[in-house]
Amino acid sequence: MQIKQMIAAHPDVQGNLNPALVRCIEECLACGQACTSCADACLSEEAVTHLRQCIRVNLDCADICFATAQLTTRRAGGNVPVLQSMLNACRMACELCAAECRQHDSMDHCRVCAECCERCRDACQAAVASLSTQ
């Protein structure tokens, strides 16, 4: 809830929160963490060579999710076209990462990561839609 409180306290927001953006920030942070953890877990698997693409996609998705959370958190001024582009890039990265992890979902860490990526993808899509209506 700190994210919601911080954004609500921002002078440019004045309590007028965009719930879709707040949810997106939370999901991006959770997804970035899940992807980082999944990549690390993949490195500990015996068939690590077979997981090379999964590791790469996980790390790319984590970086994009963390960057998206940072941009979405910034409420001063406005740069909606860049924010929309970043949210769309994050949505795509999460979609690709979920698909890759689903190929390995017999491993719990990949299954959990795929689920997290799917939630983040949906949150990014909702956030883009919420910006279109403002």
How would you portray this structure in words?
By secondary structure, this protein is mostly helical. The chain has a single domain (2-132), classed as Up-down Bundle (Substrate Binding Domain Of Dnak, Chain:A, Domain 2), CATH 1.20.1270. It is built from five helices and no strands. It has helices spanning 2-9, 19-43, 52-73, 80-102, 108-132. The two termini are 23 Å apart. The mean pLDDT is 92.
Any idea what the shape is? elongated
CATH-level-2 architecture: Up-down Bundle
Largest sheet: none
Whole-Å distance between the termini?
23 Å
The share of residues in extended strands comes to under 5%
Low-pLDDT segments, ≥5 res: none
Main attributes?
134 residues, mainly alpha, Substrate Binding Domain Of Dnak, Chain:A, Domain 2, 5 helices
Structure described in brief:
With 134 residues, this protein is mostly helical. Helix content is 77%, strand content 0%. It has helices at residues 2-9, 19-43, 52-73, 80-102, 108-132.
